[in-house]
Amino acid sequence: MEIERDKLLAMYRTMRRIRCFEERVRDLSIANEIPGFVHVSIGEEASATGVGAALRLTDRITSTHRGHGHLIAKGGRLDRMMAEIFGRRGGYCKGKGGSMHIADFALGILGANGIVGAGLPIATGSALAAVIQGRDDVTVSFFGDGAANEGAFHESLNLAAIWKLPVVFACENNGFGEFTPAQTVTSVADIAVRAQAYGIPGQIVDGNDVVAVHQAAAEAVARARRGEGPTLIECKTYRWEGHVVGEHAMIGTGQYRERAEIEQWRARCPIARMEKWLTERGLATADVFEAVAGEVRAEVEAAVEFARASESPDPKEVAEDLFV
Amino acid sequence: MEIERDKLLAMYRTMRRIRCFEERVRDLSIANEIPGFVHVSIGEEASATGVGAALRLTDRITSTHRGHGHLIAKGGRLDRMMAEIFGRRGGYCKGKGGSMHIADFALGILGANGIVGAGLPIATGSALAAVIQGRDDVTVSFFGDGAANEGAFHESLNLAAIWKLPVVFACENNGFGEFTPAQTVTSVADIAVRAQAYGIPGQIVDGNDVVAVHQAAAEAVARARRGEGPTLIECKTYRWEGHVVGEHAMIGTGQYRERAEIEQWRARCPIARMEKWLTERGLATADVFEAVAGEVRAEVEAAVEFARASESPDPKEVAEDLFV
Amino acid sequence: MALMTFIQAIQEALIEEMERDPLTFLMGEDVVLAVFGATRGLYERFGPMRVRNTPISEIGFVGAAVGAAMAGARPICEVEFASFFYCAFDQVCNQAAKLRYMSGGQAKIPVTFRAVYGSAGSAAAQHSETVYSQFLNVPGLKLAVPSDPADAKGLLKSAIRDDNPVIVFEHVGLGGLRGEVPEGEHLVALGQAAIKRPGTDITAIAIGAMVSRTLAVAEKLAADGISVEVVDPRTLMPLDEETLLASVAKTSRVIVADEAHLRGSAASEIAAIIAEKGFDLLDAPVKRVASLDVPVPFSPVLEQRAVAREAAIESAIRELLGA
Amino acid sequence: MALMTFIQAIQEALIEEMERDPLTFLMGEDVVLAVFGATRGLYERFGPMRVRNTPISEIGFVGAAVGAAMAGARPICEVEFASFFYCAFDQVCNQAAKLRYMSGGQAKIPVTFRAVYGSAGSAAAQHSETVYSQFLNVPGLKLAVPSDPADAKGLLKSAIRDDNPVIVFEHVGLGGLRGEVPEGEHLVALGQAAIKRPGTDITAIAIGAMVSRTLAVAEKLAADGISVEVVDPRTLMPLDEETLLASVAKTSRVIVADEAHLRGSAASEIAAIIAEKGFDLLDAPVKRVASLDVPVPFSPVLEQRAVAREAAIESAIRELLGA
Ligand SMILES: Cc1ncc(C[n+]2csc(CCOP(=O)(O)OP(=O)(O)O)c2C)c(N)n1
Ligand SMILES: Cc1ncc(C[n+]2csc(CCOP(=O)(O)OP(=O)(O)O)c2C)c(N)n1
Ligand SMILES: [Mg+2]
Ligand SMILES: [Mg+2]
Questions:
Q1: Of D123, D158, D181, which residue constitutes the final position of a domain?
Q2: Which of these, C239, C110, C113, lies nearest to C164 by C-alpha position?
Q3: Shared-domain flag, residues C22 and C135
Q4: Which domain holds residue C140?
Q5: Does residue B62 sit at the D interface (CB-CB below 8 Å)?
Q6: Are residues D162 and D104 part of one domain?
Q7: What span, in angstroms and rounded, lies between the C-alpha atoms of C213 and C317?
Q8: Taking a C-beta distance cutoff of 8 angstroms, is the pair C288, C256 a contact?
């Protein structure tokens, strides 16, 4: 599948936005300007981006505790995201959700989620709603390697398979669930193998190659849209940062991976890789990348300013938004 | 694997005991002599029996709502089972459990269970206990095709696989979960395929062939005992009777399967089949079968008498047995 | 008025609401043949798209109902025996209940769950539980417990139309209960208690199946000159505290009857509310009538002892009145 | 006596009990590196057989703990944030709680669950809940909620030795709380409340993290001449009703402070017990201090408003005393 240059550049920009946004969130969290804990996906931008670029506005996603990238890839506004992460009234959830619970229903973002695996049944139901409505909207569920050991994974894939629902299960296998290496708690090396248990296609992609991810996702989305049912895609990737920003406040001096491993994966940076790829094909040059980087930085700074300028909710608002 | 004649005859007797016991339970339930609802496994005796015969006293099992056969195959006493089904003090659970909750911890029977799929994590934990204790006892979890769609199935198989626990997952695929045909709600035709999702052996056996079941089970049990981890065995079988005795009180005149289908499976009766097999090999003759049938009938009658003679619990006992 | 059973009333509600809104659909285990009867015939009427037998996967299909509701459909999801909710608690309590609030009011989750609860004779502990109490402490859910056919229909219709998650608990023993149901559009608002029998000596607040039991006791006691006011909250969330307290103001004495185990029951919650907000109205302790704190036993004699029924209601009333 | 933190006290309890009984073992998500610190170093000390990181599979590993207990081992199972229990409710409520009773007393299920609960600052609704209330209505479970290091150690040790399923709820904010812990064998029996501060004007029954908050309020009010008796039930099941009622008998006024959402809280249960059994002892309504009935919000100002802390305790006491 040939991808248009505009789309490629848009994906490049998305990855940059995610990276820049999350670096800023990380630093603001370390600087104690953000309440609660945040999980960033730095190094994993290609999977969110490649999948997100395969979706249209009326398609939907469910996301995870590590969801900023997914949300940005589905069109989430940086300013309202940042304000939510700050816990401000101008945030997507008026400060009630925070980093782990950002949603934008107008964009089909059904929400990040603090419960590992919980998004899969919800995405499956969202796909079912499309069928009931007679629409060809597709829902993508993002989840981690750790979530693939939850019962919710199993029950969702089975349900989606028997009803041929328009849902794509996008697993980001970053090698760890919290501080536990995936291979010590997951009985198969490749999550994609589990597709066989549901008679659906399962595909492994290099999760740091945005083009590969996008091609796989576009195919799976098209299949779903045609009414041919779900696909499981496994993006092999890695998180450069801790499970949670400032994780050593949690686990002390404990180590769960080698520095060298992190360095190896840093060398496979999805952004640098795409730059190389675009350059080699003559689709873009360094000044394009720099321009994008600059624009994105400005956007992120504006988002931070927006968040800082946004008021805290009024305590009275505590009782609002529970019921319709 | 060659099976000794004694063992073969013991298995034959076990199947007969199960059949005779459950026919009696069914009739007593229809006659309203048994409170609550009962699920019988008539037609499925070979799977319980073949697996049970692969176990020793210190091995353990978990069972299901359709558990009489499993319990008898693990050595359960007919009289105390029957008394429990009657809700009497002389029953295994002093009348507190009933048909769906019979247990005999001294025999390693950790209990029938009213919650579909709930036995799998318990069996997995039982296998873990053996490891912790440094014993080579094996645990078998019996469950149905319907249970294989529960999250508990998925999480248990994964856990057992990564820790190489001595547990055998014995799925009795009888084609239905309640009144729903398995193929309409299960994404694969063969549950055994799902073993691939956990990197463990998965084996399909003719669940009406007690010899085949026993061979597969003995192998899986031996493997587990050697510390090589779990196996998933799928016994293809069929239930002749309703989901629950007197199911039409529940579902009215609704039909969910063809008469002809039931007849086809009746023709594959596991007991008749074993008789033929034993006869052909010159291992037993009709008079042996008749003798066993007679003995078993007497045993079941004695169990019924025991149950009838057993007192109802004293209402005061209601508060006992909650805590140690 | 039409005379019908509790189950027929539920069926009418389902049919009317499914005809009213094409985005309403039904899912659950064996809803086609209909284990408890209420959904029987709906598959034939509404077809495979809108009446769906699910796998035995409570996380999966309960969660799918939540997701479908979030995405604009209006699912009615049946969970057979209410104890099976335990298999899907996360989707109900962490997702359905919380997602609207956490999303700052963006999510609209018009899902209705139906489940059968309570003891109906030797179904044993895993099929006899009264589990609504476990949801009381979870903000974001509405809980309805109808006690007769008219309320069953009216509450279920309101639940289906409600844009929030609602669980309707139907006592397993009430299915065949007959009663008059108003013809035509019949809605019962969520959050309105009903005085099922007016009285002056004592208030008996009763939930679900305890209502008809309490009415029977009230009838019996009337012969002894004892006048019992029977109040049915009908929904536990929202709870119509006003009607409850007004009745207590009138009688000064109150029992709360609930089939749940006593500890942590809805009866306890209501008793606590009365002890806090109606303390000055009371002439006597707030007495709870509930089941013993043991799993529901199988044996009929033990179950009879464990589960709160007429006898317990009567003796509690007599005790409070010194009669 | 040794001065140590709540977490250190828990760690001591774990080490002592694991050294005492070789069939005791630890399992849960990331118990090796120890997200909350209590299990840190235990892997190095007891090895991979007895300290096990599990997959993120709450049904699987909670159920495995139940099964291992039934088969003769003595598991200590950590469930990180207590809200994750929702993913494993069936194994806790339908299995661990019921199997002994249903088997007529055959099953012995010596499993201990530990989980962190409560609000500690912008962890939002799915990581801030006080979920012990949801287990109150499930007979067969014991529930402990320590409020200081000594109780944390003593209750946990008793829980581990208990042959029944016990859940120990540790407030996320208490980890660093320092306090004296008796040297040597220190057990706190399950079912014994503690008078944490004697007083005469009013009884304040407080649970978990509400105990230190209530003590702070009591200290402050003492300056105004108000004498508050602070009673900590320490276990919600079994509940030491006697000690609670004895204190009410002394003071005639009572508040119950619980961080849970109000509706269906442990505070409601305790209030209902007092309104039923201690009605004649009371001079004033039983006042509950609990969190608002909304999911715990993320924003610090909203969370501050939603979650019951010192200010709510103080004003409830003043209200009841008209002071
Ligand atoms: C049901 C549940 N169990 C445990 C947790 C705690 N937890 C939060 S993130 C996480 C790891 C998730 O791993 P994975 O799915 O691989 O996603 P990743 O963090 O690697 O992106 C865990 C265990 C949780 N939030 N929900
Ligand atoms: C968690 C749960 N969901 C639903 C039920 C209701 N139920 C009882 S038996 C049954 C069918 C089980 O099917 P299967 O596992 O194939 O066993 P079979 O009855 O065929 O032996 C169902 C749905 C239950 N008991 N537990
Ligand atoms: Mg991961
Ligand atoms: Mg079956």
A1: D181
A2: C110
A3: yes
A4: 2-181
A5: yes
A6: yes
A7: 13
A8: yes
Contacts B86 to D, Cβ<8 Å: none
Residue B258 falls within a domain, yes or no? yes
Confidence (pLDDT) at D120 = 84
Q: What is the mean pLDDT of residues B78-85?
A: 98
For range B271-286, the mean pLDDT: 98
- Residue B1 has a pLDDT of 73
Q: Name the nearest CA neighbour of B188 among B238, B234, B157, B151.
A: B234
Q: Answer left, alpha or beta for residue D37, where phi above 0 means left and psi between -120 and 50 means alpha.
A: left
Taking the CA of residue A173 as reference, the ligand 1 atom at the shortest distance is 16
- Same domain flag for C273 and C125: no
Report CA-CA distances (Å) from D181 to D5, D19, D41, D177: 9, 19, 21, 12
- Report yes or no: A217 and A206 within 8 Å, Cβ to Cβ: no
Residue B46 maps to a domain: yes
Amino acid at residue number D87: C
- H-type alpha helices, chain C: 6-20, 42-50, 58-70, 89, 99-102, 133-136, 149-161, 209-222, 241-251, 266-277, 300-306, 310-321
> Whose CA is closest to D65, among D53, D81, D77?
D77
Torsion from C-alpha of A155, A157, A161, A166, nearest 10 degrees: 120
Q: Does A104 touch chain C (CB under 8 A)?
A: yes
Q: In terms of domains, do C20 and C91 share one?
A: yes
**Cβ of residue C292 closer than 8 Å to a chain B Cβ:** yes
Are C176 and C198 in the same domain? no
Query: What's the pTM value of the predicted model, to 2 decimals?
Result: 0.98
| Rounded Cα–Cα distance for residues B286 and B275 (Å) | 8
Domain count, chain C: 2
Q: Hey, which residues 119-158 in chain A have their CB within 8 Å of chain C?
A: 120-133, 139, 151-152, 154-156, 158
Looking at chain B, the whole-number percentage of residues with pLDDT higher than 70 is 100
Q: Tell me what pLDDT residue A1 has.
A: 72
- Whether A122 sits inside 8 A of C66 (CB atoms) is yes
Number of domains in chain A: 1
- Does A312 fall in a domain? no
Phi, psi of A245 (to 5 degrees): -60, 130
Chain C contact for B181, CB < 8 A?
no
> CA-to-CA distance for B25 and A13, rounded, in angstroms?
70
* The pair of three-digit structure tokens given for residue B181, joined into one six-digit string: 């045909």
- Evaluate if residue D203 carries a pLDDT over 80: yes
Q: Please give the backbone phi and psi of residue A30, each rounded to the nearest 5 degrees, phi first.
A: -60, -35
Instruction: Quote the crossing angle between the two packed helices B119-133 and B151-162, to the nearest 10°.
Output: 20
CATH number for the domain harbouring residue C124: 3.40.50.970
The verdict on residue B285 lying in a domain is: yes
Residue of chain C minimizing CA distance to D98 = C295
pLDDT band at A232 (very low <50, low <70, confident <90, very high): very high
pLDDT in tens, C77-91: 999 999 999 999 999
Q: What is the pLDDT of residues A118-135, one digit of tens each?
A: 999 999 999 999 999 999
Residue A84 has a pLDDT of 98
Residue A279 phi/psi, 5-degree rounding, is: -65, -50
pLDDT of residue B252: 87
Query: From the list C73, C91, C99, which residue is nearest A132 (CB)?
Result: C73
Both tokens of residue C73? 């459909």
In chain B, the N- to C-terminal Cα span, in Å, equals 45
Testing the interface with D: which of A85, A92, A150 to mutate, by most D Cβ within 10 A?
A150
> What pLDDT, in 10s, does the model give residues D77-120?
999 999 999 999 999 999 999 999 999 999 999 999 999 999 98
Q: Tell me whether residues C134 and D134 touch, CB distance under 8 A.
A: yes
Instruction: For residues C208 and C174, state if they share a domain.
Output: no
Q: List Cβ neighbours of D9 (8 Å cut-off, separation of 6 or more).
A: D149, D150, D152, D153, D179, D181
Mean of the pLDDT values across residues B65-82? 98
